[in-house]
Design a protein that fits this description.
Layout lengths: L2 H16 L9 H17 L4 H7 L6 H14 L3 H13 L7 E11 L10 E4 L6 E14 L5 E8 L10 H13 L7 E4 L6 H9 L3 E5 L5 E4 L2 E4 H7 L4 E4 L7 E11 L2 E12 L6 E5 L6 H12 L3 H12 L10 H20 L5 H7 L12 H11 L8 H4 L17 H5 L1
Parallel strand pairs: 1-5, 5-6
Antiparallel strand pairs: 1-3, 2-3, 3-4, 6-12, 7-8, 9-10, 10-11, 11-12
Helix pairs in contact: 2-3, 2-11, 3-4, 4-11, 5-11, 12-13
């Protein structure tokens, strides 16, 4: 067996063990479907069913494999929830106390697919226009010190689906599901979309540590009066200096003060006002106590590392070509998004042992570790399995070898054979 063949066999065994954490009640065809789709996305770098079918290298027509995958994904809507639970169970225990948990809402542009099921109106993050598509919700754990990223969950949503309540309910349901798999308390970092009264009430009632960039739309109780965020930013003296990013060169001025929400006057919050450039000050509010320059600088750097969610959306759209998927069923598209997140989680789980994949990728700067290594890892995976002639068919659907013929219990005598 060649070196590449041994390496491929090792990664296939790892992938089988990674997807083997499902409960015993899951049917075997669904287990096979999850395994094959995750492998196909990693090998083809695409969420398109045709590319996944080609990468499986089954000894049948690609059209037959494509029809089987399409039928199974549309029939079993529970695949998305199984993939999310498996990903959280595998990666939740790897989230350390030094990591932040970033939550952000993105979009999947489906403006050209008018017949997509439950398609709604979303804001395209690239152009800023309102287009037809689906909102995405991504949760990522990020280590501010080392820069390591662990994807925890990516869910496709729709305001036109059956059972939709509100955007706040979708966000809180995602956060509650992730929180059940994380040990201890974590700092949740949310962008300006999290500055809502219903969300603050939920977080404060459960004593969560959250960090939110607030908008200038509400009043805060500060020094005996009611002020908006930018009014406080203009009056607050910025006594401290710190770095905008860890190991970065940009230095900013910031100030720290205590504020309260009018509806929760007995619960103190801490506001960090950051002056960065000629733009209006950046105002952050957190429920975790902030005392001194060092803790304030950590809060600023924690919010700036929230951009790991932006990298997550870019990786989903470019690394797995999410916007090229041509399926119309909402359940199928939701399953594909969850399985792509599971495939990304597999790469993140074995990131430290993926030196062979990084070498296979043939990067231009092999000595420098990339800040977001998953493009390199998925490219190395594709080049490793490019020469594979068979994948899982002999393991899962191959015909068992025939048993050797049994000898007769009473063999005939030599005279009978001569006759």
């Amino acid at each position: 067996m060649s070196k590449d063949a041994r390496e491929r066999s090792k990664w296939k065994v790892r992938l089988v063990e990674w997807t083997d954490g499902l409960s015993s009640g899951v049917p075997r065809p669904v287990r096979k479907l999850i395994l094959e789709c995750v492998f196909g996305m990693l090998t083809s770098g695409s969420m398109q069913l045709s590319e996944i079918a080609r990468s499986l290298q089954e000894p049948t027509r690609v059209h037959h494999t494509l029809k089987r995958l399409s039928r199974m994904l549309s029939k079993h809507s529970e695949v998305a929830w199984l993939a999310e639970g498996l990903q959280l169970s595998r990666l939740g225990l790897r989230v350390t106390e030094e990591m932040i948990v970033a939550v952000d809402a993105g979009d999947l542009n489906r403006d050209g697919a008018e017949r997509s099921e439950h398609r709604c109106r979303v804001r395209d993050g690239d152009t800023g226009e309102i287009v037809g598509g689906y909102p995405l919700m991504t949760v990522v754990a990020r280590d501010v010190g080392t820069g390591r990223t662990l994807p925890l969950l990516t869910r496709l949503l729709s305001s036109a689906r059956y059972g939709f309540r509100s955007e706040n309910w979708d966000l809180l349901s995602v956060m509650d599901q992730v929180a059940r798999h994380l040990p201890g308390k974590r700092l949740w970092v949310v962008d300006r979309g999290g500055d809502r009264g219903e969300l603050w009430e939920h977080w404060l009632s459960r004593d969560w540590d959250v960090l939110v960039r607030v908008m200038n739309l509400r009043h805060w109780l500060w020094r005996g009066g009611r002020y908006r965020a930018q009014e406080i930013a203009c009056r607050l003296p910025l006594k401290h200096r710190g770095r905008l990013r860890r190991n970065g060169a940009d230095e900013v001025r910031f100030g720290i003060t205590r504020v309260h929400l009018p509806a929760h006057a007995g619960h103190p919050l801490w506001m960090v006002v950051v002056r960065h450039g000629k733009r209006e000050p950046m105002v952050l509010v957190t429920s975790r106590p902030v005392r001194g320059r060092r803790q304030g600088e950590r809060m600023i750097q924690a919010y700036m590392d929230r951009w790991a969610c932006e990298e997550a959306y870019r990786f989903t759209k470019q690394g797995f070509q999410a916007e090229r998927v041509q399926v119309r069923r909402f359940a199928t598209l939701q399953n594909l998004v969850a399985l792509a997140s599971l495939a990304w989680g597999f790469l993140a789980a074995f990131e430290e042992d993926a030196e062979h994949l990084a070498i296979r990728a043939r990067r231009l700067k092999p000595r420098k570790r990339p800040s977001f290594p998953f493009y390199t890892l998925i490219r190395g995976w594709q080049r490793l399995f490019a020469a594979a002639r068979e994948v899982f068919y002999p393991w899962l659907r191959g015909k068992r070898p025939k048993a050797p013929p049994q000898l007769p219990l009473f063999p005939p005598s030599p005279g009978a054979l001569l006759a």
